[in-house]
Amino acid sequence: MAKVEKKAGKTRIILFTGKGGVGKTSVAASTAMLLASRGKRTLIISTDPAHSLSDAFGVQIGAAVTEITHNLHAQEISVIEAINDHWENLKGYLTGLFSSQGLDPISSEEIATLPGFDEASELLYVNDYMKEGKYDVIVMDSAPTGESLKLLSFPEAMSWYMEKLFPISRTTARIVRPIMKPFSSIPLPDDSIFKSMEGLYESLREVRGILTDESITSIRLVCTPDRMSMNETRRAYTYLLLYGYPVDAVIVNKIFRSNTGDFFQNWRKSQEEIMAEIDNSFQDLHIFKLYLSKDEPTGMERLSEMGNDLYGDQDPLEVFAHSIPISYDKHDNFVTARIRLPFATKERLNLYNKGGELVIELDNWRRVFYLPQTLANKNPTAAEFNNGYLLIDLK
Ligand SMILES: Nc1ncnc2c1ncn2[C@@H]1O[C@H](COP(=O)(O)OP(=O)(O)O)[C@@H](O)[C@H]1O
Ligand SMILES: [Mg+2]
Question: Which CATH number characterizes residue 346's domain?
């Protein structure tokens, strides 16, 4: 498998996601321990509201960055503090706006945490830390798959909102504010609010740029060798590719050793079958394997052992597999777009061109591809899945 060297001096991001309970936190914490012990300035952050980094390390970690040991800092992100850190401005405006509408203060506060506010403010930390350049690596222990996908698809959704709705509401505010002023106490957003929204939008675009750059970010899928977890991992892989995120590895955790006795015989057999399917399913990714240990891998010593078992001589900062971006093949009178989307099927897919944007809907996930100028007026006329690729003819 071809390996990409990381660009010298750049902060790396390694993000772990997967089904609840498979070992994301343990794997993230052990990766961070290993990196710190090998001299990398490491920050581990948890974006899972059900934080368990403190439990894993056996050290109290707060919403602020806390030093755990030499070279290792940690943070359990609190959404409220994240909003306060990044969005004081906007929250103040919304609170004012809603209370002027006769909504009581408590619900104003609640409304101020509109959908997306938490995702956005968490992502902004990534931007902060990348800019600070204090760390060689940021390890992200994220929420279970669905929540993480919501987080990672947020910049895309936000950019849709900003490009489609925002210009309209900004113009409306400009026209309406002078007329409304004498009559109403409704505080229309002034230009500073719009400026702060634009700034926010810019930052989120930067975060998306960081998280989709394979020389910076590697997303690693943690699973256990059972069917439910494998299926969820397959779906997560497809959706992450749909959004252009660089996945480079799968970590199969909690594998039974051969000496686990008769009682676990059936489990061992089914684990072996599922592992063969996992090997087969994720051929373009690196697959790490970790045995179930005899007790809970908590505390720094146990996490260090786990890190060594996981990576051995390998460098966790290595990029273990290339991600495959969208490409276009030219034919005589049409172009075929090729997007890597393994495990997807046609029945779950919806495609159309909307004003020069190719919209792909898969299950509940929607991605908008901005078509190159030369293709902006072409429509999808045919689509098929071939060897894990979605091929779309644009005519
Ligand atoms: N390889 C392993 N062997 C034994 N126990 C493990 C292993 N990996 C994780 N665990 C335990 O499984 C439980 C769930 O792990 P955790 O890392 O919290 O998962 P997640 O973050 O995915 O919910 C924890 O009690 C953890 O200590
Ligand atoms: Mg966890």
Answer: 2.60.40.790
Let me know whether 50 and 120 are in one domain: yes
Pocket of ligand 1 contains residue 52 by CB under 6 Å: yes
**Do 81 and 210 sit in the same domain of this protein?**
yes
Within-domain flag for 227: yes
Model confidence at 163: pLDDT above 80: no
Indicate which CATH number applies to the domain containing 226.
3.40.50.300
**3-class SS of residue 150:** helix
Q: Which atom of ligand 1 is nearest to the CA of 291?
A: 1
Q: What is the pTM of this model?
A: 0.87
The protein residue with its alpha carbon nearest to ligand 1, atom 12, reads: 23
pLDDT given at position 313: 97
Determine if ligand 1 sits within 6 Å of the CB of residue 253. yes
Does pLDDT of 237 surpass 70? yes
Is 307 found in the same domain as 230?
yes
Measure 335 CA to ligand 2 centroid, in angstroms.
Answer: 44
**Residue-range definition of the domain harbouring residue 341:** 327-394
* Residue of 25, 26, 53 to test ligand 1 pocket, by largest number of atoms within 8 Å of CB: 26
Residues 156 and 269 in one domain: yes
How many Cβ atoms sit within 10 Å of the Cβ of residue 196? 17
Is the pLDDT reported for residue 94 higher than 70? no
Strands (E), the chain: 12-18, 42-46, 66-69, 72-76, 137-141, 217-223, 247-255, 286-291, 327-330, 335-340, 349-354, 357-362, 365-370, 380-386, 389-394
Is there a domain that residue 224 lies in?
Answer: yes
| Atom 1 in ligand 1: residue holding the nearest Cα | 292
Does some domain include residue 132? Answer: yes
Ligand nearest to the CA of 22: 1
Asked, for residue 107, whether it belongs to a domain, the answer is: yes
Instruction: Give the number of the ligand closest to the Cα of residue 55.
Output: 1
- Ligand at minimal distance from the CA of 223 is 1
Q: pLDDT (tens digit, 9 = 90+) per residue, 6-27?
A: 444 689 999 999 999 999 999 9
Supply the residue whose CA is at minimum distance from atom 14 of ligand 1.
Answer: 21
Same domain, 247 and 382: no
27 CA closest ligand 1 atom index: 17
On the 0-12 / 13-18 / 19+ scale of CB atoms within 10 A, 104 is exposed
